[in-house]
User: What shape does this take?
Amino acid sequence: MTAVVWFRNDLRSLDHRALSAACAKHQNVRGLYLLSPKQLDEHIIAPIRRHYLRRALDELGRQLGDLGIVFDIIDAGHFTDATKHLGNYCRDHQIDTVYAHREWLLDEIRRDAACIEAGVPLTLIDDSLLSPLDIATGDGGPYKVFTPFSRRCRTQLMANFPVCSRRPKAVADKIDNAPCPRFGQEQDASAWPANQDDVLEQLRGFCAERAHDYREYRDIPDLDNTSRLSAALSLGLLSPRQCLARLQQECGDAIWDTSSGAGTWLNELLWREFYRHVAYHFPQVVRGRAFQAYTEQIPWPNDAALFDAWREGRTGYPIVDAGMRQLRDTGWMHNRLRMITASFLCKDLHIDWRWGERYFMESLIDADFCSNNGGWQWAASTGTDAAPYFRIFNPTTQGKRFDPNGDFIKYYLPELQDLTAKAIHQPKEQGNYPAPVVDHQKVRQITLALFKNVRD
Assistant: This one.
């Protein structure tokens, strides 16, 4: 009897429930990844994420090889061809069971249903969430607001703390798996660990050294006080259970206190959960629609020149431009800056949030559909639990508050290097640095009118 573990966004061998189940029940186990370059091209996946994914697949192949498990990477062409390739693989290798972790987005649900309908012996295991998808409000419906959702999750986790599974024992002698072939243009992602042991060390270091102060310093982009684990979580090099377990081990019961640093970071994990619940229960957001239906009527002007200025970091608002250049140069952006730049695009430049959502997905090493969509809809006031439409970030005030001395700004905007801390947040036109593309106070009134007109 031979089983295959179909890896998706869960590229690890430790705390992997599907792999553990396969190794416990079958003498012969294989690993499989269906690479879909055409789909990656359609979604214009960032070159830095492609390199990161390839390195992660190579590391997974090494880990599985140490367990004596053959790891095959098949060019499946497109996501929609998965059923055909998986069926052929099962026939070629006499597979009697395919183990995989359940996925919750609409296309993935349909893909797995098509596999089962086609006769693929697919066994789906819940793995990717801390909280079950059937978690419900008092009236039995799905949560639409984060705070009560997070409160309910904490109660459940305290009563039934999740347990991480060990790495399976070797099923055969060690083997050498072939490396993943290159697929498309790449940008160096070596600054981001793709080895699971290195990622776990990164988790340990954050929980032991910075989690306690996370609440106090997490919004300051010039400080290295965030976990920077979002990229590893997005590919499943790390499970949310591992994050919770390590956080509890280092910080104890402080994790349940939302006013503590550890409790604040747990909240970030729960935001990740929340947006997955939203995408599952309200699939219109997966189809590119706003959660708040009335906001579909907003006539966004969508000035392409303003969008280019935002994308290229030349809006004349230093904190916005520094954030966008950080994204361009590193493939990552500090979370506070994601909120500032997203708010600026929608509420100062009046550009449809979907333009920004797509650009982030095309650029980020940690691109994650649910978190990205949820964050953009929050910033644009079109989503569940969204910021009120009249709460509009002032980019100058945000810069003064979170980068008071301009240290972060100067790093990414060297043309402003000589300005004082007082002058740097409202610079006059400086050589090749532009004047502001809009007047914040004037466009703020336009934003209020855009929303008010469709609400009335």
